[in-house]
Automatic annotation (TrEMBL):
InterPro entries listed in its UniProt record: DDE_dom (IPR032874), Integrase_cat-core (IPR001584), IS_Transposase (IPR052183), RNaseH-like_sf (IPR012337), Transpos_IS6 (IPR047930)
Name under which the protein is recorded: IS6 family transposase
Species annotation: Ktedonobacter robiniae
Protein keywords: DNA recombination, DNA-binding, Transposition
Keyword DNA-binding recorded: yes
NCBIfam families on file: transpos_IS6
Integrase catalytic domain segment(s): 63-196
Pfam family, one: DDE_Tnp_IS240
Length: 196
């Protein structure tokens, strides 16, 4: 069965929709900034319409692009940071490889071994991630426990090593600034789904 046209019945052309979605997810722009930019180009697009486009098309674009991502290196850097969801701080777990490519991310309301385990399991099962040789983490006590449990169950290879050295994680720590810069114009998120 042929896949239906994803832009059917939309008022605006697909390239306008995709441009707005791409600019929103890539650059530190708010929905109102995009509304103003489209108005400068002669298009009257409300900021709530752009919000709906992002919510509808961003997950689909991510799903379609994921199989084409280049494989990553076997040295991982894992860390967590805070973002606001419903005016409350939640934890954004992130992993990057030794070249700074994002492996995966995970939102959690807790910062414990269970959340770390869920995140590591999600990253290990991602199709574009290569098997880790070493996982670098900070001094958070949740990571060794989660690592040991996953190694025990066979999800992490026996040869993989966990390193808790603060300065080896500088790459992901610096990358958090980029994420914060993207989330700041929107003043946080209103649900886990929109944050994702």
């Amino acid at each position: 069965m042929a896949e239906q046209h994803p832009f059917k019945w939309r008022h605006f052309q697909s390239d306008i929709i995709l441009l707005c979605v791409r600019w929103y997810v890539r650059y530190a722009l708010s929905y109102r900034d995009l509304e103003e930019m489209m108005l400068e180009r002669g298009l009257h697009v409300d900021h709530t319409t752009i919000y709906r486009w992002v919510q509808h098309y961003a997950p689909e674009l991510e799903r379609r692009c994921r199989p084409y991502l280049k494989s990553t290196s076997d040295s991982w850097r894992v860390d967590e940071t805070y973002v606001k969801v419903k005016k409350e701080w939640v934890y954004l777990y992130r992993a990057v490889d030794s070249h700074g490519k994002t492996l995966d991310f995970f939102l959690s309301s807790t910062r414990d071994a269970q959340a770390a385990k869920q995140f590591l399991l999600k990253t290990l099962t991602a199709s574009h991630c290569s098997e880790p040789r070493v996982i670098n983490v900070d001094k958070n006590a949740a990571y060794p426990k989660a690592f040991a449990e996953l190694k025990e169950t066979g999800h992490i290879p026996e040869s993989c090593e966990l390193r808790q050295v603060k300065y080896l994680n500088n790459l992901v720590e610096q990358d958090h600034r980029f994420i914060k810069r993207l989330t700041k114009p929107g003043m946080g998120f209103f649900s886990f789904e929109t944050a994702w």
